[in-house]
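Example record

The entry below shows one chain as it appears in the dataset: sequence first, then structure tokens.
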Amino acid sequence: MMTSHKFISRLNWRQILIHLFATWFFMQSFFILSFLHDLKGHEVFTEKGQTTSFDELRLVSLIDWMFYSPYIGLLVAFIISLSISIRKKWFWINSLLVFILGCLFKRLDFDGWNYLKNIFLAPGKFLDPHSAWYYLVNGLPMLLIGVLLFFSTWTNRFIDLKRAIINNKH
């Protein structure tokens, strides 16, 4: 049985923090890229769309995609984080904590997107906001940042520093 001291000592705050950032990027990029599902979906929210081609099923589908896509990104990020933890023999609870924190931040609307979206949507600022390029130019770099945070040799060495420090003490 694991004591609470041993449990706490196995937590790796570096991994939790880096994987939480990577997860955030996955969640936001999945949200942005979800708009590729229905590029003309904005018509549903405009007066023109409501008077000429209002479609209740389309509206429900659009809202579902917008709501569930960050959680799908969270789940994908969790699977990546967990697989990295297992492969590198890191404590798997770290990945579970990242998943729980990501859920909480999203559900409580504490993910900071309202403040940071102007920065991360800037690459597509000069593109038509109803084109596929707009969403690709804004979403793919965020996905790339998330992937780099998960798989970069530098970040993984930084996470492993805790284990190296502990091993040198013994």
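Notes for this example: The chain has one domain: 13-169. The radius of gyration is 20 Å.
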